[in-house]
């Protein structure tokens, strides 16, 4: 059986975990919103327990993508967070980086490219490896655009509401 590489669409998962409990967020005594950190930690524990990945990479957007540079209105219609929610979200991302470090999960990204571009490229490269070094790549994302990459060596795992254990 081929070794398996799991590539997680990091920001998408953080965003989902952050907003899943936005009406009643988990907070520390100091008021820090820990919903996303809690959600990501549970996700990682369930992913490892159920799927036992040989390799795991957490993929983030890095900087402004080339799409934003070529088309300034790219994603302009997305609702913006108010100042407090943006601070909470940014702090959650910092906490999750600490959690990923503790789990020894590398954070991957390429300046100027979105996470889905990096995931697609890595999945394609891994699937093209010949011989005994071939990897089975599992993309972990709810992004339906990844369906076009599914093939003999590329699978898609939609984390859904309950995470990969569902």
Radius of gyration: 17 Å
Note the total helix count: 5
Q: Say how many strands there are.
A: 5
Helix content: 40-55%
Q: Order of helices and strands, N to C?
A: EHHEHHEHEE
Straight-line N-to-C gap? 23 Å
List the helices and strands and how they pair.
Layout: E1 3-9, H1 10-20, H2 35-51, E2 55-59, H3 66-70, H4 83-102, E3 107-108, H5 115-128, E4 135-140, E5 154-157
Parallel strand pairs: 1-2, 1-4, 2-3, 4-5
Give an account of the 3D structure:
With about 170 residues, the chain is of the alpha/beta class. The protein contains five helices and five strands. The protein has helices at about 10-20, 35-50, 65-70, 85-100, 115-130, and strands spanning about 5-10, 55-60, 105-110, 135-140, 155. The chain has a five-stranded parallel sheet with strand order 3-2-1-4-5. α1 (about 10-20) packs across α2 (about 35-50), α1 (about 10-20) packs across α4 and α2 runs parallel beside α4 (about 85-100). The longest helix has 20 residues, at about 85-100.
